[in-house]
């Protein structure tokens, strides 16, 4: 068996070609109308400047980005009210797709700037009711880069500079109307996941995250990714669920996640994580275990599941605090029980955070994957021949800060990847 490889989705470029209509009359008029529809709308503020290509404080970088985003927007006029409705789909970390302390702070700062400077925009909550009014929607992300003014992300540990960017999309037209970027000093960025994402036991590179980031990459006039538009109602329900869960209302959160699951594009890992976490918070151990089993099935069906097992620093032993590791035996039991009946083998790849030498991280990540494998085999003996443990060291960090705490827990994950077995499996199941 070979270890699973994370595949990064490339960004596609849609090119629209216009057809020329020879001659005059109706065809010529249609051509003029088509040309007019392709002519970019003027900026809201003529010759509005772009943010500087220097690393700034987070507050200043978000301010410059937000002002440019709204001043330079090429947007159709508002309706009869003379105002635009605006919603913010929570900003995310590009590599992980999660909300962090910094991305949530960015949202709050953007909201304050909008309320102070842009009175023709009415900031509304990201809910199904708000989406029904076809508002302007704001999306954005953050990623480490090699230096100020640089666009491509970097995987170098302990980044000194981050790029932040945001877009405005017009749900009336289905198009991006503005896109702006700023750069932030690395020492002011806090990548610690917010409560829901900190507590979520599993991670995967989800389709909805790819669609969100695809839209974030758009320039004025580009279409909003159709997968993102399809899942918007589900996204709003997920946002409601996260707010309820973090607000200490797990029963209400559970209802939001269950509703999201029924929406187009709603069968997401974070929805299933939310159902598990809500049942756990309600103290329903049986429902929580069933929900975690569904999390595992979701990952196995899609060929990727990363589980956040927290180990003692420098060891292959699970963290001894029951508040952290108390559910690990149940997680391992469900992974084993849900894998055993399938006609697959399972590759387990351990990862380490970028502290220590490469050789040490390689041994440590392998040892941690072996610990997990041994636990699975003790639950289901048939997995002895169908599982393999490998170590990736610190070669594929998602966060890369090397803080060795909850901020970079995903860098110490164990990934599970089902793959075809080199031998018949069905005989073992009899």
UniProtKB/TrEMBL annotation:
It comes from the Bacteria. InterPro entries: OmpA-like, OmpA-like_sf. This is OmpA family protein. PROSITE patterns: OMPA_2, PROKAR_LIPOPROTEIN. Residues 1-20 form the signal peptide. Residues 298-422 form the OmpA-like domain. Keywords: Membrane, Signal.
């Amino acid at each position: 068996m070979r270890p699973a490889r994370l595949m990064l989705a490339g960004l596609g470029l849609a090119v629209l070609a216009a057809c020329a209509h020879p001659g005059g009359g109706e065809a010529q008029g249609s051509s003029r109308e088509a040309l007019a529809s392709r002519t970019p709308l003027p900026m809201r503020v003529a010759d509005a400047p772009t943010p500087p290509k220097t690393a700034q404080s987070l507050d200043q970088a978000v301010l410059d980005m937000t002002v440019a985003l709204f001043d330079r927007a090429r947007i159709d006029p508002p309706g009869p009210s003379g105002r635009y409705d605006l919603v913010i789909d929570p900003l995310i970390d590009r590599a992980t797709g999660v909300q962090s302390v910094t991305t949530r702070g960015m949202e709050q700062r953007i909201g304050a700037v909008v309320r102070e400077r842009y009175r023709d925009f009415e900031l509304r909550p990201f809910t199904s009711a708000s989406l029904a009014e076809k508002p302007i929607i704001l999306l954005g992300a953050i990623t480490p880069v090699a230096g100020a003014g640089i666009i491509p992300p970097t995987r170098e540990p302990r980044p000194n500079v981050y790029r932040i960017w945001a877009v405005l999309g017009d749900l009336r037209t289905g198009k991006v109307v503005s896109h702006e970027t700023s750069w932030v000093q690395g020492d002011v960025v806090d990548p610690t996941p917010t409560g829901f994402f900190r507590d979520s036991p599993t991670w995967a590179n989800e389709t909805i995250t790819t669609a969100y980031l695809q839209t974030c990459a758009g320039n004025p006039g580009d279409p909003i990714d159709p997968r993102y538009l399809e899942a918007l109602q589900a996204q709003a329900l997920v946002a409601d669920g996260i707010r309820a869960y973090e607000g200490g209302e797990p029963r209400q959160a559970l209802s939001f996640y269950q509703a999201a699951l029924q929406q187009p594009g709603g069968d997401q890992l974070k929805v299933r994580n939310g159902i598990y976490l809500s049942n756990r918070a309600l103290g329903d151990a049986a429902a929580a275990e069933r929900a975690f089993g569904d999390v595992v099935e979701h990952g196995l069906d899609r060929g990727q599941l990363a589980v956040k097992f927290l180990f003692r620093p420098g060891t292959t032993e699970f963290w001894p605090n029951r508040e952290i590791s108390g559910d690990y035996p149940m997680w391992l039991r469900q992974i084993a029980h849900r894998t055993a009946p399938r006609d697959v083998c399972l590759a387990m790849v351990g990862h380490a955070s970028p502290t220590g030498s490469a050789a040490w991280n390689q041994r440590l990540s392998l040892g941690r994957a072996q610990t997990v494998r041994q636990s699975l085999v003790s639950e289901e003996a048939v997995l002895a021949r169908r599982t393999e443990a490998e170590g990736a060291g610190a070669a594929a960090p998602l966060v890369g800060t090397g803080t060795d705490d909850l901020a970079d827990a995903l860098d110490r994950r164990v990934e599970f990847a089902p793959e075809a077995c080199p031998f018949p499996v069905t005989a073992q199941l009899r």
